[in-house]
Amino acid sequence: MYKLFRRHSKCMSRPSDLIQGTLDLLILKTVSLEPAHGWAIAKRIQQVTDDALQVTQGALYPALHRLEHQGWIRSEWHATETGREAKFYSLTRAGVMQFKKELAQWERLSNAVGLVIRMV
Amino acid sequence: MSLSRWREILRMRFRSLLRRKRMERELDKEFRFHLEQQTEENLARGMPPAEARSAALRMLGGVTRIQEECRDMRRTNHIEDCLQDLRYAARTFARSPGFAIVIVLTMALAIGATSAIFSVIDGVMLRALPYSQPDRLVSLFMNGGDFPKFPLNPFDFRDFRDRARSFESLAAYTRRDVQLSGSGQPVSLTGFAVTSGFFHVLGVKPLAGREFSRKDELPGSSHVAILSGQLWRSRFASRPNILGQKIVLDAVPFTVVGVMPPGFEHPGNEYHAVAYGEPVDVWTPFVFEGANRGSHYLNGIGRLKNGATAARAQGELDAIMTQLGRQYEQDRGWKVLAIPLQSEIVGRSQRMLWVLLAAVSVVLLIACVNAANLLLARAAIRQREIALRAALGARRSRLVRQMLTESVLISLTGAVLGAVIAVGGVKALVSLLPANFPRASDIHVNLAMFLFALAVALATGILFGLAPAWQGSKTDLVRSLHEGGRSVAGGFRSVRLRNSLVVSEVALACLLLIGAGLLLRSFVNLLRTDPGFQPERVLTASVSLPAANYKTSETVGRFYRELLARLASTPGVSAAGAGTDLPWTGYDENAGGFTIEGKKPSRGQEFHARYHVASVDYFRALGIPLRSGRFFTAHDDKDAPLALIVNQAMARRYWPGEDAAGRRITFEDHPKEKDWMTVVGVVGDVKDTPASDGAEPAFWWPLLQEPWPYTEMSVVVRGNSDTARLAVEIRSAVSELDPNLAVAHIRSMDAIADDSYSASRFTLFLIGLFALLALSLAAIGTYGVISYSTNQRSHEFGVRMALGATPRNLMAFVLSEGMKLAVTGMVVGVLCGLGLGRVLGSLLYGVSASDPLTIVAACLVAVVASALACYVPARRAARNDPMNALRAD
Question: Which among A47, A79, B368, B612 would be 20 to 30 A from B600, CA to CA?
């Protein structure tokens, strides 16, 4: 079980982390399927990976806010099925393209890692 | 980055800044939602409600920290901090308004004055001339021996035009006023005779019609003229069919072939100067007649080719002159001077402007020092508050930034007020400018001035805020937060800093005082020098006789004899005369080379002096005294032997130690008896300007013996009392004799004399104003610092009084503290003031830069002001009840 933590840094600049980039990708993918609020995103990731990846709130919400302020996703408040008001995130047009780009990067990276791992 | 993404980003930034409250609420809501979902999940798993909630909270982790991180993602930290600082600064100033008002007013005055002076400098020196590519324009002069800046000869100029390669185009022009007659009153027009391509050199196209061509320069060509836009509008009602119309100039019909646009600026000229920016009404073609290479009267102007420099062009023209010198005797030994047009126009007033800018910068500096001192004192008072903030976790850089924001806020507010002051200041300055100040019409309040004020505000805000911010943010937490801490505010180093600031203030003020004192003495010296003539109650006017109607010297002489006879017999007139080149109205470098009976010039030297014409009573009307011999009489006419009057400068140069009366000179190479001119009288010297070193040698021909008919002369009338109505007399006398003549430039000699002093007076007034301002600011600064330190030390004074010190002792003590600072500042100021000579240079007259009287006087003023500034706090300290003082703090 891997927990995706937010690396605690003194200066609040963007940590250029592999982990942070991966989290972005996960969020973008989840949101691309359908608009969802933060809780739902975390739950969905947990479900799909069969509890292998658990996104903590300390990592999720800053990531969501960062993506929103960078213009990849936008938010809307409306009611859930249970009637409560929640903040739903969805992809922007620029976000769609960014997602495709990050996806391609990830695939390139994972292929490369795979090659190294499988080398004899 | 795509446009839509930018839109999203900007939208989020706006929301973060302007809808903070709503965003905070949403953040809260988002986390509460998450909490509720987690609680529900826990409940669903079977936890009891209370535990469900607390477990959820634990899982959520440090909410505050996560929320902070989310806020950081908004990327508006810096702006938010800045806004917070501004709000805080505004609040603190609202709490102590008196303090804020004092600093803001000081900065407003200083920034306003500096911006006004900048506006003047911008209009005069920085703004490009209104011609195309003005940096390629140069003014051309001849340079030879005694005459470093002499006009050009027409035929030399024509050779330049044909042969020079460094220039794209060349043109020449000379003053030629004409009289417009025909419909209505005859009027005298300011005019210039220009060669073809004159406007082309400047890069200005006519509004209508054409420029002059080479054909128009040929003798005998038809008479054509180009009008100025203003003349077309005022005299011809902007008639659309003006081209081809005939107008009568100097009794000769001219055809109008062109009209220049109304904004066209004359580039200025020497000799019968029309300053840059003054209106020129009409241009006529310059006609090349004859072949005389001896007379010089043209101004030259040229447009350099791309890449050529003035120096190279000058070298090329020098080479051409050498070639010409081999061919023509009169061109031998002359060189050429090429000066960029902008420096030619502005040159004379440059020093004055830089001095003014330096002086106003000193005032600005003193204002900044005052502000710094006040802020330092205030930072010392706020030690506790600052220590608290530091204890709560504020970093030093944050504290410094916050205090800098305060000082920048002060200076920006000061700049806004200062801009208002500057607008009024510029208007006042323009109205006070001395006569003939170059490019006065180009001085406007514009965007550049406001940007300058803004830049100065930012720079000074940081400048005077830095030291207090640095000092103030240095906190000794323990000492400051401790109750009843009786530290001298800020400690020893802070006191030393403030004292040295006061010393620098006094030094700067002293410097300005010395400068103002020197200028005052110069001005007084200028006023006291004998002008050489008596300008009171003298009226002058300019009369021009068109050559077409007055072809010979006889007709000219007869006209003036009649006119002067009429004027002399008018009641209220004590003397009436006519002559050329009135005192202090500009000079003409016309110089005749002559032979002196019985003297031989040394090698390479020539006898020359300026020549003029004068009627019988000319000198009497002007009040120029006779030193020996006699004035002209009515008998000095065409039939009498040739007579001359010389001035003392000429007499001293060519007949040193002897009486020049009775000596003879001639202009002919092989003179017969009738060609000799006898000096009949010597008159007193009149300098070119009040500040000139000495008069130039000059002589006068009698009006009736003038060697060629002078078309334009000045009539001089000395009245017994009121001269204003004499203008009417002059006009009617002239129109009686010839109704087609115009009388122009009616001015009193008093006004002309006044104009000549105006530059000196202007500089003195402004520098004096700045010096006073500087002194007041320095006094306020001294008062502030002494007062503050006295307050701080009131406990100590209480102890002293208890131990037996009398109030007088205390007063003396405080005064001595203050005077120590003032005297140190004075000494520094005087030492710097010794270098003022180089700065003021030609602005000084008759007084050396290290004039002891001025320095002592300035020091006295500074000492008295400082003493007054220290007096009030001293009295307060002395009056203080020792019991109160001991109990306080």
Answer: B612
> Tokens in use for B152?
């050009």
Q: Is the dihedral of CA B823, B826, B832, B838 positive or negative?
A: negative
Contact yes or no for A86 and B33 at CB 8 A:
yes
B828: number of Cβ within 10 Å: 17
Give the model's pLDDT for residue B693.
82
CA distance B26 to chain A (A): 8
Q: What is the pLDDT of residue B78?
A: 77
Q: How far apart are CA B521 and CA B846, in angstroms?
A: 8
Please tell me the least confidently modeled range out of A46-55, B31-40, B358-367, B470-479.
B470-479
Model confidence at B22: pLDDT above 50: yes
ipTM: 0.82
Residues composing chain B: 889
pLDDT confidence tier of residue B85, bands split at 50, 70 and 90: confident
Extract the tokens encoding B696: 């130039």
How many angstroms separate the CA atoms of B114 and B365, rounded?
11
Cross-chain Cβ contact B2/A93 below 8 Å: yes
C-alpha closest to that of A40 among A29, A31, A49, A50? A31
Chain B residues within 8 A of A86 when measuring between CB atoms: 30, 33
Q: Is any Cβ of chain A less than 8 angstroms from the Cβ of B8?
A: yes
How many contacts, defined by CB atoms under 8 Å, are there between A and B?
Answer: 77
The mean-pLDDT minimum among B351-355, B672-676, B758-762, B789-793 falls in B789-793
Q: What is the pLDDT of residues B840-857, one digit of tens each?
A: 888 888 888 788 899 999
By the CB < 8 Å criterion, does B28 face chain A?
no
CB–CB contact B36 A68 (8 Å)? no
Contacts of B38 in chain A (CB under 8 A): 39
Exposure string of A14-35, with b = 16+ CB inside 10 Å and e = fewer, is eeeeeebeebbbbbbbbbbeeb
Quote the CA–CA distance of B399 and B678 in Å, as a whole number.
Answer: 89
Please judge whether A65 and B26 are an interchain contact, meaning their C-beta atoms are less than 8 angstroms apart. no
